[in-house]
Amino acid sequence: MPDHPAEPWRIKMIEPIRTTTREHREKALREAGWNPCLLRSEDVYIDLFTDSGTSAMSDRQWSALMRGDEAYAGARSFYLFEQAVRTHYGYEHVIPVHQGRGGENILSRCLIRPGSHVPGNMYFPSTRAHQELNGATFHDVIIDEAHDAADEHPFKGDVDLAKLRAVIAEHGAAIPYVSLAATVNMAGGQPISVANLTAACDLAHAHGIPVFLDTARAVENAWFVKQREPGWANHSIADILLALCAPTDGAVMSAKKDCLANIGGWIALRDPGLAEQARGLVLLYEGLHTYGGMAGRDMEAIAQGIGESVDEHHIRARIAQVEYLGHRLDTAGVPIVHPVGGHCVCVDATAVLDHLPRTELPGQTLAAAVYLEGGIRGVERGTVSAGRDPATGENRYPPLEFLRLAIPRRVYTQSHIDHVADTLVRVHKNRHDITHGLTFTHEPPHLRFFQARFAPAGGADIYDG
Length: 465
Fold this sequence. Notes:
Largest sheet: 5 strands, mixed
Radius of gyration: 21 Å
CATH architecture of the largest domain: 3-Layer(aba) Sandwich
Mean pLDDT: 95
């Protein structure tokens, strides 16, 4: 069993949650079109749909809320927020947005034109959607090991430099930027090494191409660097975070992850000209450039959360809780993505439901089964999340198809995690009782996993024989 340190906090306030009957969950899931995303939260016992905006804030963050300066322009809270980002991420120009996808929208509108090509270390649904809506084609240049659930490579978020070099050679001036993530969500929360990130930036910069980093979980990435990358064991998490950002030209951030806040984000840039352009678009789409869709109290909570996020005791306990769930599932024979990621454990749906065709959406089917069994909400990461190819209209079938169990920070106890593990073990043990997968009955054009509806391919229930 991996080390599971005692939590470096104690509980001061609780939010009641309730268990439900199987009959109740069956009714709720049918009403939600077999999509756990459309469930009411009151019908969910353990909610692992996302770690985004679902973490528990500290007493100091709640205190910071009361200090919020709600002036429309030039609020004191903005300058506190700006200084926290500059100190811990190292970028000069800090532009607030309401959350990460607001930053993706602004950056895409600034730089992408029809016919553009954007290389990256595996796609993320909202990031690629903004790129494609603005006329770009995404190119996956992540290492091959990232597409193999069983591979134990310590940095499956690394860029394959030969792949990146080939995309640059083919598309050259049509590449507005390289889009990298630390960690890589769709690979299961896998980190990128400092050495590889630096090499990828050097390659791009040699061709005049900027690199922008998704830093939503860069603190978790820094933890893995400290544990796994030679030469970094004696460095602080704060120093490694700065080292990850240092070779890049800017970042898009959802402060709802590492920063322990319930809303908010930023664009951080080095180029003053691009920063001025981005501020102009923020005025149109987000709010004034000194609040960007956030209240002053939100910026205060984020500034406090940034400092807490790099605390060694906090990040050690956070990663250990995720590793604990992964170890329990792995030792019980439940196939998961290896190594265990920073924010989630990903159950390999194509291995669990290997008797279902990909056309019956095994990831979505497994998500439904786990909710029915134990009231646990996860999210599919596979065919549904990948969407359709805009050129052909055909479903994309990525190599990885999994159920992501994303663990909110400072929210659930070890007993809750044990319930999750016990539920997954039961579902896996009885997996052949799942005789049918799911098919679409309603399919939105963008980010369809949020609002799509489904029906069992073989009748009224996925368990019908």
